[in-house]
Amino acid sequence: MKKFITCITLSIMMVLSLIPQVAFADDVTVKEGGVITGFAEMETTDYYYEGNPEEEELTLNLPETLGVYIDGNAEITDIAVSWEAVEDFENTDFYFYSMKPVWGEEFTLSPELSVIMDVPWITVYKQEPENTQIEPMLTEEEIEPVYTEEEGPVDPETYEEGFVEETVGAIRSLLVEEVYAATTAENTAAIYKYLTKTMGLNTAAACGVMTNINAESAMSPINLQNSYERSLGYRDSSYTKAVDKGTYKRFASDSAGYGLCQWTSNGRKAKLLSYAKAKNTSIGSLKMQMSFFHKELKESYESVYTTLKNVPNNASGAYIAATEMCMCYEIPYDTVNTAASRGKTCLSNYWKTYSGSAASVKGTSFITLCGYTYPTAVRNGKGMDVKGYAISNYTVTSLTGKIINSKGKTVYSKTVYPGTTAARLSALDNDMKFSKLSNGTYTYKITAKDKLGKYVTTSHKFTVSSSGSTTKALGFASIGGTAATTPVTVKPEETKPANSDGKLYTGTLPKLPFRGYFKKGDKGTQVKYLQKCLNWAGCKATVDGSYGNGTVEAVKKLQKKLGLKADGQFGKQTLEKFKKLRM
Question: 0.70 cut: is pTM over it?
Answer without folding.
Answer: no
